[in-house]
Design a protein that fits this description.
This is DUF932 domain-containing protein. The chain has 378 residues and is α+β, with helices and mostly antiparallel strands. The protein is built from twelve helices and 16 strands. The chain has three domains: 133 residues; 121 residues, no CATH class; 79 residues, no CATH class.
C-alpha cells in the first residue's frame, strides 16, 4: 500500500531533518473528512466517499470524493467502529474481497452516524485511507507536535541530540538524548558486553539521560513524553513508561465536512505540548532522576539466571513476543555474557535496535524493564 502513495508512509532510524521533510510532504497531501455513514461505501475493498466536499488549500482544489485504499490501521478502525472482528475483516480482505465489501456496506447502513476519515490524496483516481476514527477525535498532527515539542526543549535550555526518528502507519517516535546528563551504573553493566562490538560495560559504565517523544495521527495512542536511559557502550535504550505524561486526542464532536481547526484551538493544543515537553525535560534530563532510576534497577538486575533458555522463553511468552523475537533475544543474551535479570533487559533492548518494524522495536524497549522484573522472580 505504501507504494501507491505520493510520499512514503514510514521511515526507520531517520535523521530529524529527513523526518521533518517527510512530514511536510505528507501534510501537503492530507485529506481529513468527517463523513456520514450513508456517504461511505466499500467497493473492491476500497472505501468510496460519495458527495463529500472539495478540499481548498494552498495547492488548489482537491476532490475528496472517490476511492481510498485502507491501510491496516484504517481497517482496524473500521472493524472497531462497525463491530466487525478485526481478524475476520483482515481475512476477508485477502481471501474474500466480495464479502469484505458486503460486511462493511451492511454494517455501514445500520451505523447512521458520522465518522472521521484521515487520508492522503494521490492526485490520481485513488487515495490512501490512513485511519477511520470517531468524529470526536481531536487531530494533533505529527509535524505540529514535533515543532511544539522541540520548542519546549529549547525553552528548557538543555543541549540535546536526536538519537534517531521513526514514522510508522501508527505512530511517530523521536528519540532524544542528553549526553551532558550522565551517571555511572557499574552494578548494572559490570558483566555486560555489547553484542555489537564486544566492548565491556565494566570499562564504560556510563548511562545518559534522554526521553522519547511519540504521537499518533491515526488513533493509535496519545502524545507521550517517556523518559529513556541510554547505555553508552551499546546505545541500548530503556524507556520508563510509568513516568510518562500523556495528552489524549479527544475533543468535541465535529460537524460533517472538511476538518478545519480554529487557530485558537490549534494554538492551545500546541502550547500545552510545548509546556509539557519543557517540564519533562526539566524532570527527566536531571542527574538525580537518572541516579534514582539506576538505583531502582540495580537490585533486581543482579539476580542470577540459572536457566537462560527457559527464562527467556517464559518471559517472552508473558510479554507476547513472537518466536522470532524469542530466538533473537536469546542470541543477544548469550553474546551479552551477562547471566542476570539485567542481562535479559539488555538483550531485549539490543534486539530492539535491529528490528525493522519500528512499532515492535519501541514495544520491546517499553517492555524491557518489565522483562527484567519477570526474569528476577522466576
Amino acid at each position: 500500500m505504501t507504494s501507491t502513495a505520493p510520499v512514503a508512509l514510514t521511515t526507520r532510524n531517520a535523521r530529524l531533518e529527513d523526518l521533518v521533510d517527510l512530514l511536510r510532504r505528507q501534510q501537503a497531501h492530507k485529506v481529513d473528512v468527517v463523513v456520514h455513514s450513508d456517504q461511505i461505501r466499500a467497493a473492491g475493498t476500497r472505501l468510496q466517499l460519495v458527495g463529500t466536499p472539495p478540499l481548498l488549500s494552498d495547492n488548489g482544489v482537491t476532490t475528496t470524493a472517490g476511492l481510498y485504499l485502507p491501510t491496516q490501521v484504517c481497517d482496524q478502525g473500521l472493524a472497531g467502529k462497525l463491530g466487525i472482528p478485526q481478524a475476520y475483516l483482515r481475512r476477508l480482505r485477502s481471501e474474500k474481497p466480495d464479502l469484505y465489501d458486503a460486511n462493511v456496506n451492511g454494517w455501514m447502513e445500520t451505523a447512521n452516524r458520522p465518522f472521521l476519515m484521515r487520508g492522503l490524496h494521490t492526485g490520481g483516481g485513488e487515495g490512501i485511507a490512513r485511519a477511520f476514527l470517531s468524529d470526536s477525535y481531536r487531530i494533533i498532527d505529527d509535524l505540529d507536535v514535533l515543532m511544539a515539542a522541540l520548542d519546549g526543549v529549547r525553552l528548557a535550555g538543555v543541549r540535546v541530540q536526536i538519537d534517531g526518528c521513526d514514522l510508522t502507519e501508527r505512530r511517530m517516535y523521536v528519540r532524544v538524548v542528553c549526553e551532558q546528563v550522565r551517571a555511572l551504573a557499574p552494578d548494572l553493566l559490570r558483566d555486560y558486553r555489547s553484542p555489537f562490538t564486544g566492548a565491556a560495560g565494566a570499562d564504560n559504565p556510563v548511562v545518559f539521560a534522554g526521553f522519547l517523544l511519540s504521537n499518533s495521527e491515526t488513533g493509535c495512542g496519545a502524545f507521550t513524553i517517556i523518559p529513556r536511559l541510554v547505555v553508552q557502550v551499546c546505545r541500548n535504550g530503556m524507556t520508563i513508561t510509568a513516568d510518562a505524561p500523556r495528552h489524549v486526542h479527544l475533543g468535541a464532536r465535529m460537524e460533517e465536512g472538511i476538518v478545519r481547526w480554529s487557530d485558537e484551538t490549534a494554538k492551545k493544543n500546541l502550547e500545552l505540548i510545548t509546556a509539557q515537553t519543557r517540564d519533562a525535560v526539566t524532570t527527566f534530563l536531571d542527574v538525580d532522576y537518572v541516579r534514582a532510576k539506576l538505583h531502582e534497577l540495580s537490585g533486581l538486575a543482579r539476580t542470577q539466571i540459572a536457566d537462560p533458555s527457559r527464562t527467556i522463553e517464559l518471559v517472552t511468552k508473558k510479554l507476547s513476543f513472537g518466536e522470532e523475537q524469542q530466538e533473537q533475544i536469546l542470541a543477544h543474551f548469550i553474546k551479552g555474557a551477562d547471566l542476570t535479570a539485567g542481562g535479559v533487559m539488555h538483550a531485549i533492548t539490543s534486539v530492539a535496535q535491529t528490528v525493522p518494524n519500528a512499532d515492535l522495536a519501541h514495544e520491546m524497549e517499553s517492555q524491557a524493564l518489565r522483562a527484567m522484573q519477570l526474569a528476577a522472580r522466576l
